[in-house]
């Protein structure tokens, strides 16, 4: 049985791992010689290998090596690949903090939009929260000296939409760790084909490769395994709420490891986006 202390510890560890993906990718593209396509290929491959190893170590009939290859599906793998590629290319120009904020906002917006499209009813406080979050995103992207580059912002939004689609498709798909491992393994050939098409623009050095491996194996593969374990002790609303910490952790990491400045625009937009999403999630729980 998972104790409350263990749940808190695992949850915190998972959020740090998810935030670390932004830090690792940004550092790799800024301070090493690796290109975003190569980073994507290595990250997905390393994540697939780590998840395969974790599943194998569970040593059950349902999670044998042959079972891994039969789980997941190609559509989910495609969504996973689009997320990873968009994520990497967006971080050519975005700061770690801005990228994480846009990614998280786009993921939540995608999932909320699907709920509304499916006929889910929302209350006035949820409408207020959603409106506040949308205002925050628009404010962040308004033209100005401190606005993030539009191309990078759009790529990260696309990555967030892809991850939102992936998350929606994963609902009720069975053992989440096993399904994720299967999707990662299916995403490897997609990434390799993509890498071959970008071969003329590829570059890498040992430092960049190391960052990509850590991002894939530890921050992604191991991070997901930890998160799925923590989820057993969390309610749905709590799980959604704690994910609000990821952009905050990425901001702190960007300041510490990359020396990224935090602008007033970013602070105000963060308060609006994260506060609005928190208002939506918490009131969704109350309505249920």
Question: Can you tag this structure with a few keywords?
Answer:
single chain, 288 residues, 0% strand
Task: Walk me through the structure.
By secondary structure, this protein is mainly alpha-helical. It has one domain (4-287). It has helices spanning 4-31, 36-57, 65-70, 74-90, 96-117, 124-141, 150-170, 176-197, 206-231, 236-242, 245-258, 264-287. Helix 8 (176-197) packs antiparallel against helix 9 and helix 10 (236-242) packs antiparallel against helix 12 (264-287). The protein is globular, with a radius of gyration of 18 Å. Mean pLDDT is 88; it is low at 61-66. It is a multi-pass membrane protein. The chain crosses the membrane at residues 38-55, 76-94, 100-118, 125-144, 150-168, 177-196, 208-227, 239-259, 265-284. Keywords: Membrane, Signal, Transmembrane, Transmembrane helix.
Brief description of this entry?
The chain contains 12 helices and no strands. It is mostly helical. The chain has one domain.
Number of domains: 1
Query: Mean pLDDT, nearest integer?
Result: 88
Low-confidence stretches: 61-66
- Cα(first) to Cα(last) distance is 27 Å
Radius of gyration from the alpha-carbon trace, in angstroms: 18 Å
Largest sheet: none
Order of helices and strands: HHHHHHHHHHHH
How many separate helices? 12
What's the shape? globular
Residues in helix, %: over 70%
Strand content: under 5%
The total of beta strands comes to 0
Helix/strand/pairing category? mainly alpha
């Amino acid at each position: 049985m998972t104790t409350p202390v263990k749940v808190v510890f695992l949850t915190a560890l998972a959020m740090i791992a998810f935030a670390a993906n932004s830090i690792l990718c940004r550092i790799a593209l800024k301070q090493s010689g690796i290109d975003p396509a190569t980073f994507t290929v290595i990250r997905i491959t390393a994540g697939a290998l780590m998840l395969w190893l974790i599943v194998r170590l569970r040593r059950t009939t349902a999670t044998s090596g042959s079972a891994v290859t039969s789980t997941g599906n190609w559509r989910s793998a495609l969504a996973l690949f689009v997320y990873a590629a968009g994520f990497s290319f967006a971080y050519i120009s975005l700061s770690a903090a801005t990228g994480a904020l846009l990614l998280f906002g786009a993921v939540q917006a995608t999932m909320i939009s699907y709920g509304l499209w499916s006929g889910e009813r929302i209350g006035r406080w949820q409408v207020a929260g959603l409106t506040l979050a949308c205002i925050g995103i628009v404010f962040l992207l308004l033209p100005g000296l401190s606005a993030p580059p539009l191309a990078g912002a759009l790529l990260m939004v696309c990555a967030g939409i892809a991850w939102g689609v992936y998350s929606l498709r994963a609902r009720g798909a069975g053992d989440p760790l096993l399904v994720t491992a299967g999707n990662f393994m299916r995403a490897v050939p997609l990434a390799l084909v993509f890498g071959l098409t970008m071969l003329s623009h590829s570059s890498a050095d040992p430092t960049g490769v190391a960052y990509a491996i850590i991002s894939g194996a530890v921050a992604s593969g191991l991070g997901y395994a930890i998160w799925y374990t923590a989820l057993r002790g969390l309610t749905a609303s709590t799980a959604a709420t704690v994910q609000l910490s990821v952009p905050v952790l990425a901001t702190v990491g960007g300041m510490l490891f990359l020396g990224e400045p935090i602008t007033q625009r970013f602070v105000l937009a963060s308060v609006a986006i994260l506060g609005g999403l928190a208002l939506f999630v918490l009131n969704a729980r109350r309505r249920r």
